[in-house]
Amino acid sequence: MSTTTVTSDNLQSTVGDNDIVILDFWADWCGPCRNFAPVYEAASAKHEDIVFGKVDTEAEQQLAGAFGITSIPTLMVFRQGVGVFSQAGALAAPQLEELIDGVRNLDMEDVHKQVEEQKAKMAEQEAAGQAPGGQDPSSQDSGSQAQDQHRSAGAPGTSPTDF
């Protein structure tokens, strides 16, 4: 399968209607993005069951901002509608294959449990008048909060989130 252009118009259906979606946030002027493109295209041809989406950060600035994209290329991976990985920087082909294998092998029952626990904790904090993380809402940096919601399920100190 070739890559798919993802925009704010089709993001929800792309992530919601497919088991695994990998998004590459890129721009034409970005050298590392251009270098990563053949690796990403080759992986999309090899893994036809995965949706490989490309988000042009110049054309989709609002979408990139909503995901807290500050560096490109950035890869985000969703499994069953849950954000399970986010990382800036181009990957070599073996690293991308390792990422794909890791995402395929995730225990999604456990991931969904973590999402529900995180939602419950956030609801408790909101009810208590606190921002997520136990901080006073007036001191919470909204940019870092958005980024914290889209990290890898396996990275230390991070947890998956529903899309």
From TrEMBL:
Residues 115-163 are annotated as: Disordered. GO terms for molecular function: protein-disulfide reductase activity. Keywords: Disulfide bond, Electron transport, Redox-active center, Transport. InterPro entries: Thioredoxin, Thioredoxin-like_sf, Thioredoxin_CS, Thioredoxin_domain. Coiled coil: none annotated. Residues 125-147 have a biased composition (Low complexity). It comes from the Bacteria. This is Thioredoxin. It comes from Brevibacterium yomogidense.
